[in-house]
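Hi Y.,

Following your request, here is the sequence exactly as I used it, all 139 residues.
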Amino acid sequence: MRVMGLDVGSKTVGVAVSDPLGFTAQGIEIIPIDEDNAEYGLERLATLVAEYQVTKFVVGLPKNMNNTEGPRVEASKFYGNLIHEHFQLPVDYQDERLTTVQAERMLVEQADISRGKRKKVIDKLAAQLILQNYLDRMF
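Below is the corresponding structure, written out as tokens. Let me know if you'd prefer a different format.
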């Protein structure tokens, strides 16, 4: 059982995958997308789903701090519905409040990476944190 975690933005999707037993999450890549032009990176996602033998998706929900849902939550749910229809795999959602902040802090404090390089990996690390939080909650 491998679960794929996704951090969905308007320009990129951070991707993480669990180990085969579902204990740990590993960030694997960032897929460029373009919401405005309905380009969602499904071809690349399909390659990763097949490569890692994914059986389920977890999509991060960027709720507001007061637990309300804004436009980005709707966009994440749209993406979740899109991949469910495309891959015929179950999709679950994980509250992702502060995961990007946590990822940024980790990169600044532990990796000492420049701002330009952080931008290139932050979504992948956020996807990893979303998936790890989900795995910890479920197992």
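DSSP finds four helices and five strands in the chain.

Thanks again,
Q.
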